[in-house]
Amino acid sequence: MVAGVVVDASPHLLVVATEGGGEARVAMSEGTRVWDGGRGSFAALAPGRAVVVRHGMERPGADRVWVDITRVIGTITAVGRASVDVDQGPHREAVTVEIPPKAMTAVLVRHPRLEPGHLVDVICAVTPDGPRAVAPGTSQPGHRADASPQAPVDARVADVSHGSATWFDGPGFGAAYPALDGEGDAGGCADAPPGCVPLPLLSLGSVVTVGNECAKRTAEVTVVACGCVAARYCDRCVQCGTSPRGRLVELTPVAFAALGGELERGCFNAALRHDPGVRA
Amino acid sequence: MIAAVQNTQVLLLAGVLLAACLAKLVLPAPAGPGLRGRRAGVAVAVGEGTLGVALLVTSHLSVRLATSVAFAAATWIVGELRTRRPDDGCGCFGALSTHRVDRRSVLRGALFTAAALAALTAPHAGVAALRNGTLLMGCVLALELAVFGMLSPELSSFLDRRRLRRRPDPPCERRHSPLDETYRRLRSSAAWTTHEAALAGAEPLDVWREGCWRFVVYALDDEREVVFAVSTAARDATVRAAVIATDD
Lengths: 280, 248
Hints:
The complex is a heterodimer.
Chain A: E1 2-9, E2 13-18, E3 23-27, E4 33-35, E5 39-40, E6 50-55, E7 62-67, E8 69-79, E9 83-87, E10 95-98, H1 101-110, E11 119-127, E12 130-136, E13 161-167, E14 174-177, E15 206-212, E16 217-226, E17 247-251, H2 253-258, E18 267-279
Chain B: H1 2-26, H2 38-57, H3 61-84, H4 103-118, H5 126-131, H6 135-150, H7 154-165, H8 179-187, H9 190-195, E1 206-210, E2 213-219, E3 224-231, E4 239-245
Antiparallel strand pairs in B: 1-2, 2-3, 3-4
Helix pairs in contact in B: 1-2, 1-4, 1-6, 3-4
């Protein structure tokens, strides 16, 4: 997996300045699929554009390249004629998402209540004017942001929790976890809702094992951010069958793609396990 | 016999309307669009309460007709909610009605509408029906309440709320454990007594949580660190300690 900024591209080679300050060279082939606000071509790989590259499992070189992809999730605070203002929670910036007419129909189909107080989740393309919605990330939960269902107080934590995994804009290979402890240096929010999946309280640096039940891939992922906004989403993922309700984890694009997720689809049916005592 | 069954419907409807009024006022549903707004909720509750009291004190046809229309309208609204916004809950009994709207809710509304139609020509108002109560009326009312209970997810919500008031202990992985509690347990433990004299400072270097344990790290005088693991369970004050080299 590679994430960074395009330095140079040809039909056979993509050179990327990586997030760590290095440079990665990735072989390209006719089988490499490019996403650029939809199906794109190699012409989209212009120097300066941000890319996430997934290596192929069966052949060398890049399998998928996503160009300037981002995602906005949170609570709608205002609705304009072709835009919505979104509060992404205490750890992420509030943004205004432009929704062009082409995307509006698809967004409204999956978000019938595009109203203040309701949740939104859209896959966007990065533009100089801010994020521009391309497609809905997942279907809008039926509940309002301030009325998300919560697991019973005494609900036990399963050895392996099942639900959905989504992704968020974050660097490296990591995860935002929706049930971070709010005390000490754990990194959580004091007013975060408990969510509808009973999850153990963890800390930044905790390691969880995330499985993609659709692609049958598993990886250990370090918690690098607070995912308290995800705790408000008591929704399902339907990439392969219908997952139980609730978001277990938000992965960085690199981690999400490495686990076999397709960024433009927004989620995969996931299993999550935490082995006590493992901390990065 | 028919009159007794009709009188029972008056009592049933009055009871349901008053219960719905009380629930909406005491446990208002979360604010939402349209009729789910707080003011709308109060207005509906007042209307229900008025109808409930009127059913008890008068046998006027206008009250019975208004009740029938109200239940028919409620059935239609619940049917629409089931199609359009099932996850919102119907709010019929305030915050108790947050369950997904399903066929049971629609059937319940339809049965109440049928009961309201049956009660149109009931000879007595509710209070008078109570005064002239018979065994048959008691049996019919008990049967109808049992059916009402089976069709009402609110009953389990109500019982859950009562159960939650007893505050069951959450499992240690999910239990909120304040830092004060952690330090209290730590400082009254044998592990603390063992290492306290060798601590380099009073402030911990790091504090974090892993499920059932909160870890507190202190520097030691000899360049090593001691990691205390303090249980977060409600009734378990276990504290463990391990000394590690700083390089670890």
